[in-house]
Design goal:
- With 943 residues, the chain is α/β, with parallel strands linked by helices.
- It contains 40 helices and 15 strands.
- Strands 3, 4, 6, 7 and 8 form a five-stranded mixed β-sheet that branches. Strands 9, 10, 11, 12 and 13 form a five-stranded mixed β-sheet that branches. It has a three-stranded antiparallel β-sheet with strand order 2-1-5, with no helix packed on it.
- Strand 10, helix 32 and strand 11 form a beta-alpha-beta unit.
- Helix 3 crosses helix 5, helix 22 packs across helix 25 and helix 29 runs antiparallel to helix 30.
- About 1% of the residues have low confidence.
- This is Bifunctional glutamine synthetase adenylyltransferase/adenylyl-removing enzyme.
């Protein structure tokens, strides 16, 4: 081992220290650095952390305090108020840097153990979040007041910390996993009211920006919001009620692990604890939950594959015998036994480990071994991150870094450290593999029928285990609750007979699925909704193929399962012979929407209900065709766009009817709805919003008026129509809502008018639009309204896009915009690739083709007839801009990524996947083509 902390460091570190001390002398009084004891302490910190020295140079007063009392007291907290609003980011970042440097000082000099360092990192992050939230809350309330529930009670944001933040064991340079929630729906009571969801989403986004956004002072804490329901695809802030419904319907095994450690760390803590009480049955089941091991096996398999693929054996977090294996082992045992033993539900790992030993769910020797290994690994993890404040878990490759870390941890050299580390990791891996050893299963013919018919009071759950349910206790509890439910008890004899015949088949099919418990939960949700509709039970009883198909669908598609449970009418689609036949074309889809509730325009609610049912049925049929492989993902996206066209046409007709009823019509006026983005490009996904732009034209221009009893000036008349369209598309009915709408692509964006005249639209595109707006115009397409106006808008589009441009300037603008988007939106990380925004993803391909159109369509006018990606690839290939090999490779790449993204959507997963061979090939094709045409979207290329 190396010499004690009071001794001077070895001579091999003198070149490093020779650079450090002059920097400090330049900012400190000379007498402070004259004490040999002080010099030794500074030298030891300097060897362990460049970050600490950088902070001390910037904050010399901090070094004075550390030398005086070794950081016995944390630094003073910043005060954020209206008088120093511009300084908030800097104040928080300086506070975090000072607090972190204090932790380094105390850790390196042996004044704190690893437990204290983890607790200190947690407390520092909590205080930054709390101080930041209080500041942005006060500022936000001045604009919008506060949200009140129906009883007039003020509501506050609840910020949950998950992961190591929630567990109180945050590592030194970790991001913070946050979920934003609020207790009740309501509205703010200020002059500019906001509903609760938007109010708290905006508030949370401001908080994240205040902490996360890099400035000249660096960052305060990296904020990760992806653990909320549906990840990045989900809303930013969720009500407690919406969260509970999500976990009841769609909660996954990994979310149980995540929410084990959840803790309200800012905002309304009391409300947060109430929510966690209500969530406890989701996390901790009433029965011995050995199914937790099955979910753990899946998560571990994914991590093992990632480690192998990315050669992460030296990653002390994810690699074999690493920190995550200890965490998973302890959490799995908590999930198995915690439902019955409340003392095992601690959020913190080390106390949980001790509780497992005390409860005799783990041997004392194993408990001590894992606790020792955990402290060794966490201390090393902190030192890796303390070196340069980097979020790393990998052992360093540079010899000098290895030497510094080994010395600072008290080892003679790196070899000694590595040998000690390998011993600890081997012990952890042995314990972890023993936990995951699979159990054998046996099959019991006819046992499920006997079991089901004995419920709710009889029956042996072993029948479920023998059939293949790993989580037999949970399945048994769910089925007993279902059998006791009023819906089942109130069935007629004939309906009960059908249910008794259907249930064993459903159970057997669910048990044979890839995720038995997930399939069972989804099936029971569906059955609850169809019990009173005997026709559905009869169909399931009499159509075994359809029953098997139902289980298959709900097992593999969260989206379709959710829609079946919410709208049982979709069972008609599942069991209809047409679902396996040819799909309706564009005209048929439009006609089906146009015929929704004919003659009922005076009853908007009735029209929306019927139209929603039509949309649900048709989109379900499209989804089934894609899932079954009868329709490619690309063709499915096109059909979804055609369906959306039909819906917008019908809604526009309804909106114009309502406005005309109140204000008459504007004689001779024309109105058009233009689809942008994925709608315009005919590449719509399931659940995608619609990018819409509204254009009008009227004789007499701005001076025209409607001819009703309460006439409106023309701009206001069409603004009312556009507002109606947006509201009707987003209105919630018994069959759900039609679509969310985004109107930010209109001229001048959010600052511009909701509707534009044809003349102003033409002028804007000619004189004021940015390059990125012309890029968006590439995909713009007439969707609904007056076809002659649609043709005029298309003329504007063609004239704008075919303009002769400076090719180099276009290239610079397109590359700059793409780099900026990737920096803001790309969610690719070590585990998964962002199919849309990642390098070589779908947006890169879109930008490549948009660049082609802007830079070269003056010489290739035929390109302007194409809007979707496939057609643009073919058109640019036929003209020779793309060569034959590029056309084939990009067409395949597009198909691969769209197919992967649609599969994620169907299972309600974020569009982020581990990179397999097909995705790697697609990325390479797109990135390669972009670079060959002078478009290097790589962020590093600009440095």
């Amino acid at each position: 081992m190396t010499s004690p902390a009071s001794a001077s460091p070895p001579d091999r570190f003198q070149p490093l220290l020779a650079r450090v001390l002059p920097r400090l002398r330049a900012v400190l009084p000379g007498e402070l650095l004259s004490d040999p004891h002080a010099i030794v302490r500074i030298e030891r910190v300097a060897i362990a952390s460049d970050f600490a020295i950088d902070t001390l140079v910037r904050q010399p007063e901090l070094l004075e305090r550390l030398l005086r009392d070794d950081g016995a007291e944390p630094p003073a907290e910043p005060v954020l108020d209206a008088s120093n609003r511009a300084d908030w980011p800097a104040l928080l970042r300086r506070y975090r840097a000072a607090g972190s440097t204090r932790l380094i000082w105390r850790d390196v000099l042996g004044l704190d153990d690893v437990d204290a360092t983890l607790a200190g990192s947690t407390h520092l992050a909590e205080r930054c979040l709390q101080i930041g939230l209080e500041a942005v809350e006060t500022e936000f309330a001045q604009r919008h007041s506060v949200v009140r529930d129906r009883d007039g009670n003020a509501q506050r944001l609840v910020v949950f910390g998950l992961g190591k933040l929630g567990g109180g064991e945050l590592n030194f340079s970790s991001d913070v996993d946050l979920v934003y929630t609020y207790e009740h729906d309501g509205e703010s009571d200020g002059a500019r009211p906001l509903d609760a969801e938007h109010y708290f989403a905006r508030l949370g986004q401001q908080l994240a920006k205040l902490l996360d956004e890099p400035t000249v002072d660096g960052f305060c804490h990296r904020v990760d919001l992806r653990l909320r329901p549906y990840g990045n695809a989900g809303r930013v802030a969720w009500s407690f009620n919406a969260m509970e419904q999500y976990f009841q319907r769609e909660g996954r095994d990994w979310e149980r692990y995540a929410w084990q450690k959840a803790r309200p760390i800012a905002g309304d803590a009391a409300a947060g604890e109430r929510f966690l009480d209500s969530l406890r049955p989701f996390v901790y089941r009433r029965y011995l939950d050995f199914g937790a091991l099955d979910g753990l096996r899946g998560m571990k398999a994914a991590i093992t594959a990632e480690v192998a693929r990315k050669e992460l054996a030296d990653d002390i977090k994810r690699g074999p015998g690493g920190i995550r294996e200890i965490e998973f082992l302890v959490q799995a045992l908590q999930l198995i036994y915690g439902g019955r033993e409340p003392e095992l539900r601690d959020r913190r790992l080390l106390p949980s480990l001790r509780a497992l030993v005390d409860a005799r769910q783990m041997g004392a020797e194993a408990g001590d071994l894992l606790a020792d290994a955990y402290r060794v690994l966490r201390r090393l993890e902190n030192r890796l991150q303390m070196l340069r404040d980097a979020q790393t878990h990998a052992l360093p490759e540079r010899e000098d870094d290895r030497d510094r870390i080994a010395f600072a941890l008290g080892f003679d050299d790196w070899t000694a450290l590595r040998e000690a580390l390998d011993v600890q990791r081997a012990r952890v891996a042995t314990e972890f593999e023993a936990l995951l050893a699979p159990r054998r299963r046996r099959n019991a013919p006819d046992a499920l029928t006997t079991y089901w018919r004995a419920l709710p009071d009889g029956g042996d759950s072993e029948a479920l285990a023998d059939a293949g349910f790993i989580e037999a206790g949970n399945a048994d509890g769910a089925l007993r609750d279902f059998a006791r439910s009023p819906g089942v008890r109130g069935l007629s004899d004939s309906a009960r007979g059908r249910l008794d015949r259907v249930m064993p088949s459903l159970l057997q099919a669910a048990a044979a699925s890839s995720e038995p418990m997930l399939a069972l939960r989804r099936l029971l949700a569906l059955l609850h909704n169809v019990l009173r509709r005997s026709a559905y039970l009869a169909l399931l009883d009499e159509q075994p193929v359809a029953l098997a198909r139902l289980v298959e669908v709900v097992s593999h598609s969260a989206l379709l399962a959710e829609r079946l449970a919410s709208y049982p009418l979709l069972l008609d689609e599942l069991l209809d012979a047409r679902v396996a036949g040819p799909l309706p074309g564009r005209d048929e889809l439009h006609a089906a929407c146009a015929d929704a509730a004919p003659g009922a325009d005076d009853d908007a609610e009735a029209v929306l209900q019927v139209l929603n049912e039509v949309r649900q049925a048709l989109s379900f049929r499209i989804a089934m065709a894609v899932r079954d492989g009868r329709l490619s993902a690309v063709d499915g996206a096109r059909q979804l766009a055609w369906l959306a066209d039909g819906v917008v046409m019908r809604v526009l007709r309804l909106a114009e009817h309502e406005v005309a009823g109140a204000h008459g019509r504007v004689p001779g006026a024309r109105f058009a709805v233009i689809g942008y983005g994925s709608l315009g490009g005919e590449e719509l996904g399931f659940g995608s919003d619609l990018d819409l732009v509204f254009i009008y034209d009227a004789p007499g221009g701005e001076h025209a008026h409607s001819d009703g009893a309460r006439p409106l000036e023309v701009t206001r008349w069409f603004a009312r129509v556009a507002q109606k369209v947006v509201a009707l598309l987003g209105a919630v009915t018994g069959a759900g809502r039609l679509y969310d709408v985004d109107v930010r692509l209109r001229p001048d964006g959010a600052k511009g008018l909701l509707v534009s005249s044809l003349a102003s639209y033409r002028d804007y595109q000619r004189d004021r639009a940015w390059t990125w707006e012309h890029q968006a115009l590439v995909r713009a397409r007439f969707v609904a309204g007056d076809e002659s106006l649609g043709a005029d808008v298309e003329d504007v589009r063609r004239q704008t896009l075919s303009r002769t441009r400076d090719t180099e300037r276009v290239r610079e603008d397109v590359v700059s915009m793409r780099r900026r988007m990737r920096a803001e939106l790309d969610r690719t990380d070590a585990a998964a690739f962002d199919l849309k925004q990642g390098e070589g993803g779908l947006v890169d391909l879109e930008f490549l083709l948009q660049y082609a159109v802007l830079a070269h369509s003056a010489q290739h006018l035929e390109w302007l007839s194409s809007r979707n990606t496939c057609e643009l690839i073919q058109a640019t290939g036929e003209s020779g801009w793309l060569d034959e090999n590029e056309v084939g490779a990009l067409t395949q790449a597009h198909a691969t990524l769209v197919d992967a993204g649609l599969a994620c959507t169907l299972d309600r997963r974020p569009r982020r996947l581990p990179i397999n061979d097909a995705i790697a090939t697609a990325r390479a094709a797109i990135s390669g083509a972009a670079k060959r045409h002078g478009l290097d979207f790589d962020q590093d290329a600009s440095r």
